[in-house]
Write a structure and sequence with these properties.
about 150 residues; mainly alpha; two-stranded antiparallel sheet; 2 strands
């Protein structure tokens, strides 16, 4: 049996508790294989099933949900900002009735922001979910960075 060593000691852990906690985190990666909203639905489903089994699983489930909800919020903000930049640039071109290639290039930061920032966010999610799963498997509580604590 693993024993949780943390400031908030939960006590002795059963192997299925650590396995379930790992699965709660790893299930968020289902969005990478095309499951719509898998990054939220996976952790939510497993957390709802197992949260009453132990405080350890409950804590990991809340962490996984908070992180993935935070990532969704960041993605929405990036898309909105990218659209505003792109449409703003196109509107500026239309107002001046210019077909200057330079103005078209200046409209691209919105597209670059969308592609680059969303790609970076996906990479950050992948890395942090793997780190969280490893920590959960080792019987440790993991706090995701960049996470807004919406579920307490």
């Amino acid at each position: 049996m693993n024993t949780l060593i943390n400031n908030n000691t939960i006590g002795s852990l059963k192997p299925e508790e650590t396995s379930h906690a790992v699965l709660v985190h790893v299930s968020a990666l289902s969005s990478y294989i095309g499951v719509p909203f898998g990054s939220l639905l996976g952790p939510l489903i497993f957390w709802l099933i197992w949260r009453d089994q132990s405080q350890y699983i409950d804590t990991h489930g809340k962490e996984a949900l908070n992180f993935n909800l935070s990532i969704l919020i960041y993605q929405i903000l990036i898309v909105v900002t990218g659209i505003i930049l792109f449409v703003g640039s196109l509107t500026g071109m239309a107002a001046t009735e210019a077909e200057d290639p330079l103005l078209i290039i200046l409209a691209l930061p919105g597209v670059w922001l969308l592609a680059g920032a969303l790609g970076l966010l996906a990479l950050i999610r992948l890395i942090l979910v793997i780190v969280a799963a490893i920590k959960a498997g080792n019987g440790e509580i993991y706090r995701y960075p960049l996470s807004i604590r919406l579920i307490k």
